[in-house]
């Protein structure tokens, strides 16, 4: 009797371009689904807690009715800014104060952070919109009626600012909110070499897919491709890796990618976490 040894199929290589603070989470999910994750960050984030501290000094936050987070990094930056404060940011009495966050980002707003805001937790209302997008957040906040909302958002450096944040602030204003923008962190291009592994894998036809989780990541990749001698991703795919699948985390990222001329093959429509885009990739 002859025994034959089965040779395991190699795992499909999937590149993803998230900044460091999201990398381990997405890498783990890709691994669980049987992919070989290849981290190629095209943007870097740097929290800037000092920019937030003036708004957190008592009683400055009392001038606001809500705090609207559109990213995990913004929550982390505010947590760092509030870490050394000895007194709660709000008095125990007063109108409800809304803290809004998207999807799994809201998990960072735990009891310890709420206690930093107010010793009376009943004054704090945590709002997690059913649709995890900035526009969904605006809809869940409802009418502002002239109230002020603090919006910790990124300062984009070395890249064009995507329309996501300007549109978010515009939509808040249209709903009657006075939106106050503050830079909670910097988003920077990762540099001219950041797309090199994507290029080399494509040239060897070793890349199954690339996953984008923000428009800035797409622009960062395209900027690096030009530095490496490619006009755009379309040219690279056509000439070196025609089977490459481009996946986007949610319709906002997909719209931004298309605006930059990138054809998107897979879009996750469950985008409160990265599980959505990984699952969508598996259905391809």
How would you sum up this structure, described in words?
By secondary structure, the chain is of the alpha/beta class. Helix 2 crosses helix 3. It has a 6-stranded mixed beta sheet with strand order 3-8-7-4-5-6. It has a 5-stranded parallel beta sheet with strand order 2-1-9-10-11. The mean pLDDT is 93. The protein is elongated and about 65 Å long.
Strand order of the largest sheet: 3-8-7-4-5-6
How far the N terminus sits from the C terminus, by CA atoms, comes to 40 Å
CATH topology of the largest domain: Rossmann fold
Q: Write down the overall mean pLDDT.
A: 93
Poorly predicted runs are: none
In total, the number of domains comes to 2
The first-level CATH class name of the largest domain: Alpha Beta
Note the topology.
Blueprint: E1 13-16, H1 20-32, E2 36-39, E3 43-47, H2 49-56, E4 66-68, H3 72-82, E5 97-100, H4 111-117, E6 124-127, H5 134-141, E7 148-157, H6 164-174, E8 178-189, H7 196-203, E9 209-212, H8 215-227, H9 233-240, E10 245-248, H10 250-259, E11 266-267, H11 275-282
Organism: Morella rubra (Chinese bayberry)
GO molecular function: uroporphyrinogen-III synthase activity
InterPro entries: 4pyrrol_syn_uPrphyn_synt_sf (IPR036108), 4pyrrol_synth_uPrphyn_synth (IPR003754)
Which characteristics define this entry?
284 residues; alpha/beta; Rossmann fold; 2 domains; 6-stranded mixed β-sheet; 5-stranded parallel β-sheet
